[in-house]
Amino acid sequence: MKTVTQSEYARVDEAYYTLWLYKELNDNVELRSLEQVTAVNNWALWDDNGSLRVTPDVGVLSHVLRVTSTEIIYPYVQKYSKTLTLEELHTIVEVIEALCLYEKHGITSMLITRLGFDGLQKMLESSEEQIQETISNTYWYLLEAALQGVTPPNSITQFPSLITDFWRCMEPTYQGDTRRVWKHPGGVYRTRVAPWNQYPPFDMTALVWDDDRLESWGYFYPIGTDFGGSSV
Questions:
Q1: Pair 203, 181: CB distance under 8 Å
Q2: Could you report the per-residue pLDDT of 59-73, keeping only the tens digit for each?
Q3: What are the C-alpha distances in Å from 2 to residues 81, 103, 211?
Q4: pLDDT by residue (tens digit) across 160-188?
Q5: CA dist., res. 211 & res. 208, Å (int)
Q6: Spatial separation of the C-alpha atoms in residues 1 and 83, rounded to whole Å
Q7: What pLDDT shows up at residue 107?
């Protein structure tokens, strides 16, 4: 196994920094107006010529979100869906697209917004009982708000939306279609589809590694690029 290079560390650090920056900018987003949030983001992230001051690698950024959502948080919240009644499930569906979206991304977004990354790390290093209690309180937030007639803040799906928006801004210059990130030969990169929605055997998580390492692991470049298709 090769050691992780400084450039690889830098790519992951950049992704975490970008999420941290947005967390700080949108702290208590539900207490700010859309105009206020937009003004702060524009001041911090965009140059006068319209270019991004911060240019994150969306592949790594999405990988960070997936790891945080699926590998760390999601196993803790899976069991809660089994305790919901049919009425409660319908209540959630009315205010968010799907329960799985809330479990995989919504809870993570709210934990990051409420705790910050330092607080999230501290929580995950605490006792099993404390982890369960914190996630349980966050899990029931959406349901309780909906039952009280309150519309939950859009920060529930803030970070997945953020990553998609970043990709759309960077799409003209995105270099993922030239990376060695196919697990099998014959892959075709679809330019109008976000990296995390490419057809298999595209391996989005491989975007964090350098080409030499991917070559040693047997990954392939795409054989071509599809310029048509959906923009979803």
A1: yes
A2: 777 777 777 777 788
A3: 41, 35, 12
A4: 777 777 777 777 777 778 889 999 999 99
A5: 10
A6: 43
A7: 84
Every domain of the chain and the residues it spans: 6-170, 175-226
185: Cα separation from own chain's centroid:
28
**One-letter amino acid for residue 85 of the chain:** T
DSSP structure string for the chain:
-PPPPHHHHHHHHHHHHHHHHHHHHTTTGGGS-HHHHHHHHHHHHB-TTS-BSS---HHHHHHHHHIIIIIIIHHHHHHHHTT--HHHHHHHHHHSS-HHHIIIIIHHHHHHHHHHHHHHHHHHTS-HHHHHHHHHHHHHHHHHHHHTTPPPPGGGGHHHHHHHHHHHHHGGG--GGGSS-BSSTT-EEETTS-GGGPPTTB-GGGGGS-HHHHHHTT-B--SEEE--S---
pLDDT tens-digit series, residues 9-57: 777 777 666 766 666 666 655 566 667 767 776 776 777 887 777 666 7
Strand pairing partners for 230? Answer: none
191 touches 177 (CB < 8 A): yes
User: According to the model, what pLDDT value does residue 127 have?
Assistant: 93
Q: Look at residue 218 in the predicted model and tell me its pLDDT.
A: 95
CA 198 to chain centroid: 16
| Residues 203, 206, 208: CA angle, nearest 5 degrees | 145
Assigned token pair, 80: 């809660």
> Is the Cβ–Cβ distance between 163 and 61 less than 8 Å?
yes
